[in-house]
Specification:
- Helix content is 95%, strand content 0%.
- With 108 residues, the chain is an all-alpha fold.
């Protein structure tokens, strides 16, 4: 082999070695950039999820409050009806007692 051929092969091997190192370095950079991008996306998705959960909780709380208000109104009406019924029953019982007393003992 001639000296030029040996020199050419050495240079080719050096270029190949440098190209391999450059490729490895570039792959490291690409992986690092990809990891940064992934982390940014994770943070963004996490924030969006928290916002969504917050808005859903607000909506749920509103619905619950609305249902509670409706139930409270229904219960208030029922309680008032029960109070009126109790009062009417008390009045009826008193009238029945007075009527029985008058029947038994007469109008003395």
């Amino acid at each position: 082999m001639s000296l030029e051929t040996v020199q050419y092969v050495k240079e080719a091997e050096e270029r190949a070695a440098k190209l391999e190192l450059d490729s490895l370095s570039e792959m490291k950079n690409i992986k690092a950039e990809a990891q940064v991008t992934i982390e940014e996306h994770k943070k963004r998705v996490s924030l969006e999820l928290k916002d969504y959960e917050f808005s859903q909780q607000k909506e749920y709380d509103k619905k619950i409050a609305s249902i509670k208000d409706e139930k409270d109104k229904v219960v208030a009406v029922e309680v008032e009806e029960m109070k009126q019924s109790v009062q009417m029953n008390k009045t009826k019982v008193v009238n029945d007692i007075v009527k029985e007393v008058v029947n038994r003992y007469g109008n003395s």
